[in-house]
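During the second year of the project, the team shifted from modelling isolated chains to modelling whole assemblies. The rationale, set out in the original proposal, was that interfaces cannot be judged from single-chain predictions alone. As a representative example for this report, we include one of the complexes processed in the last quarter. Its constituent sequences, exactly as entered into the pipeline, are reproduced here:
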Amino acid sequence: MPITLPNLCLVVLIGPSGSGKSTFARKHFRPTEVISSDYCRGLVSDDDNDQAATPDAFEVLHFIAAKRLRAGKLTVIDATNTQPESRQPLVALARSHDVLPVAIVLSTPEAICRERNVARPDRQFGPHVVLNQIRQLRRSLRGLDREGFRKVFVLNSPAEIDAAAIVRERVWNDLRHEHGPFDIIGDIHGCGDELEELLAKLGYAKAPVPAEAGDWPDVLPREHYAHAAGRRAIFVGDLVDRGPQVVRVLDTVRAMVFAGTALCVPGNHDIKLLRHLHGHHVKLTHGLEQTLADIAAIPDDRRAAWQADVTKFLDSLVSHYVLDDGKLVVAHAGMKAEYQGRTSGRVREFALYGETTGETDEFGLPVRLNWAAEYRGQAIVVYGHTPVPEPEWLNHTINIDTGCVFGGRLTALRYPERELVAVAARRTYCEPARPFLPPPGLSLQQQLDDLLDIDDCLGKRLIDTRLAGKVTIRAEQSAAALEVMSRFAANPKWLIYLPPTMSPCDTALEGQWLEHPEQVFAYYREAGVPEVICQEKHMGSRAVVVIAKGEEAARKRFGVEDEGRGIVVTRTGRRFFDDVAMEHALLDRLHQSLDAARWWDRFTSDWFCFDCELMPWSAKAQELLRRQYAAVGSAAGAGLRDAVAALDASGAREGEAPAEPGSPRPMVGALADRYRQRQDCAARYRDAYARYCWPVNSVADLRLAPFHLLAAEGHVFTDHDHLWHMQTLAELAGPACRAGPGAAGDVVQATHHFLVDLADPASCAAGVRWWEELTAGGGEGMVVKPREWIVRGERGLVQPAMKCRGREYLRIIYGPEYTLPDHLHRLRRRSTGAKRALASREFALGLEALERFVRREPLRRVHECVFGVLALESEPVDPRL
Amino acid sequence: MLLTISTTYAPATDLGFLLHKNPARMHSFDLSFGKAHVFYPRAESSHCTAALLLDVDPVQLVRGKHGVGFTLDQYVNDRPYVASSLMSVAISQVFGTALSGRCKGKPELAELRIPLVARLAALPCRGGEALLRQLFEPLGYSVTATREPLDPRFPEWGEGPYYTVELAATLRLRDLLDHLYVLVPVLDDDKHYYIGEAEVEKLLKHGEAWLAGHPQREAIVRRYLGYRSALTRQALARLPQDEAAAPDEDEIEDKTAAELPAEKPLRLNDQRLDAVVGELKACGAGRVLDLGCSTGNLLRRLLDDGQFTEIVGVDVSHQALDVAARRLHLDRLPPTKANRIKLLHGSLTYRDRRLAGYDAAAIVEVIEHLDPPRLAALERAVFEAARPKTVVVTTPNREYNTLFAGMQPGQLRHRDHRFEWTRDEFRNWATRVAERFGYQLRLAPIGPEDATHGAPTQMAVFQLG
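Output from the structure prediction step:
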């Protein structure tokens, strides 16, 4: 006997002890699919037959079963299950996970059961036990349907049990093998003209029904709409009621479904009509009266047959579909992630009506629970049901009911293109009970994004990135980021990128250098990079600039209100300027540059995101400079001054007075020399930081050096090499931008750069010279990047950038006196491994954030990446690197 | 890094006997943090100067510390150049004999009060010249202090924290060394090592002769012991008593305390917490949230009141929650009490399901720590998502600031305050929030009310209508 099971269900084996359940289960199911009560008894008590352990064992059994069902795994319960009270919780479990409960009864004759039990030394319970179980089973058999089992299979003899074969089949809603492309069409409500106009606009044309379509219903015209390219339509339901041409719409849709050029899910109105057709009593309101009037107009001789055919059609509709490998879900009123692909009464209810709070609004309509706001599923959900003025994406869901029958539009979503195609209603066929809301100031997604959920940030997180696969954020890292993000960061809507950390090169092994270009070049040569670009490393503060064409453009794209047309943030997402006026002035200048260079048109974007260095250092680091750098300089100056003076005085005295006999001769002189050296180091140290400090009285004192054009509308510019970035960004500092006094070109600064061919020793030597010139004057050094943005090596991503800092500059990092030989030699021992691992992961996360933003994903998806960068930055790493 | 001690006692070169270091040559010592050298820039019978020069190894200083509290300050560090607790260590190790009052060659010399001048280059004075004088003048020193500029090239950066100091007095050398041993780290206020019970012993030993009678003794003890309240209490209790007993824990200055000293005399914090607890009790709340609970001042009061059956403290700072758990002794509470309270790490700018469905929430002195554009998120997280039946919010009243002594116009009460509101501003905000989220609003002042400027703290009580 073939036993047909949906590929997701809860199979409950029923049979007395010794009936052969475990053998049956072993034969037909994978070991992990079967949960046996005996095994669970063993788990909790070390004894498969310890009856005292039964309650605990079943708790474990239910727990495991629940986990499996939640994960969408077929599960088999191997226990006697002969009593209704043992089956009832299993039915409830299946229901609560919206899967079908299936009973397979092994009704093995008592004699055989007893014989088998006798043969097993561990089953020495009396014969009455099996007898009881068989009695219980007999009493149960007829009521299994009523208990809630949707399928019941009874195998009456060892022969039947042997002969049984299990066939697994797709559940009705599982169309994951259908990949489209599709055109998903919103609520039609009898708007036949608009439907046909929309179909035509989508590229569908009428075609005769091929002769081989044998069982074509007589009542249906023998023609249907088909798409030349094989696209198929999916109707989200509510074909009927309210509108003028219900019969025509039903015919058009039915013909397409019969012919295989469309799929259809039912709407609540369609189901209400079905109930009416089945003879149930339903109220003739909400437009059903129009439907019935339209049906009444069908000639008497055809009407009954037509009604029978429509009834059959509506009966056959499946409440929702999961399509395209699970990437697309279509249902009339939407579908929560946990219901997708499941089968239960409440899944069907949800598909038809959505979820309501039980309250009604001021128009007497039910208040709907906004399931889409909570939606976290991976699949796109396309639905209708509630008319909206504009279809809007919200957390991967979109409502395409644009209220055609209420005088709106009939809308289709092209999948996978995600394009919307619509035709306007020819007139208002029905006055809506609730007026169409005017489009709100912010999009639904943006309003929702005002409030991010802590569940999307806290705890251990795995973030999928295109560049580096899954990036793991540990719980304590996200905890650390939460504080920074909550207390200091700017509005997350602005934060579409945070820059990664950057590793220095390997330590130079000898000489006066701690860092030297040779080491960088060697790293990249080793990694197989043919060409690198050396960029001057500006000594200021890292700044990420987002700028929109105007405040309105910022509001539209970023969803910020009253927060100006852009922002400058630090590498930790904090607003760069405390002084709002200064930020405005800087953005004004940059805006002028963008105007002058005609970038808005050139990139057809009304916003840009730049990665920059903002100078002077003292503009941001004033406090650090005073408290830390200048203070150390001041202490060193005073301390060494007095020390040298005291040593000199002592040395002079030594010189005059004859040494005491036996005492070693002048040590003081040598010490004085050393302290004078230290004094020199301290002075150089003070010069080193002073170079990066100047007073900022107005925006004209600032210098902004953009080195990456990160993103603009529809584009993340990692597909252009760094030379392009350098040259393109130089336009913003170019002559066109310098026109006139106080022009932006004076604030925006181009970055010196130098290409090095790593295979060519002369080119490398030139690169070293270039760096030496840069740093001889005290410059910070350079950043070296592969010419291409993204380079993969044998061990994953090659470092996207590496710094090589100048000798004088490093005093600020390693201390004023690090160049003294006995210090330098100990400082060479440093490890960059951890820093590089972080740099790669943060790089992947930062670009992932940009890509998600550009794809218009919900803010939480962008935020999780940005949050991730911040979280990784909490990792303790030697800050000198 | 440099201490010089000079005398004009005749013969001045007797200083060499006192210090147990021959003026004719240089003496070098290996210490844990580097080297110390002693030499004599002057050695005449009329005037003798001994110099103690520390050669602190900056690389060594950092190497031991890998893995803990990595910050750049450890690398670019003033420690090699200043007088700090490293100087105290050097004094005790290099001048140990002198410090103990022994003088081998001339024992009577050690008990002699002689004119001495100590000079310290780059002495960090947290507390400024005023504190320097308060510490040394009561001990009979005449103090000369020259402040070192931060950087002469950037006069706008102002003065630095370092002074070059001369301390002149007529006293025993051992007393001078004792004073320096204790007071240099007190001024520097940044010990280089772990402060444990041994420090109490050192303090009492080197302060034996003079600390009990010093008018600044409490500040000295507190700072010397790194603000560790238990140690401070212990040390003060062991000093000869002449006035009130040791202060209670609340009065011990917490180095990280958020509050402006100006607010202190009012005990405003107590009044504020009383008012908030009063509101929570009055609304009959049993299950309450303390949003932004910090180190648990309000939680402690709530825990002491049986009406509150479930108390949840939420803070964005893990560190604060750890302190709260310690201060509330969560690990030692009886289960009936411990089960009533829990601490959650969370943020008020994110929706948090764990916070939904409570009777009441207190948000005490929290909103002013958020940048104004982030308030919108807090409003929705609290009033829309968590949606407690009652919400009590307190925040400073900026108008009152003018009545605090020592506050500059426009200055805020705490450096992390992003704003402080006038009564009108607060009322407007609260009214808008109440309307938007369907709450009833009542406003009340907390603290002494001034006819013109109102009360120091303002409170809003929101109730679901």
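Chain B has two domains: 2-193, 267-464. The mean pLDDT of chain B is 87.
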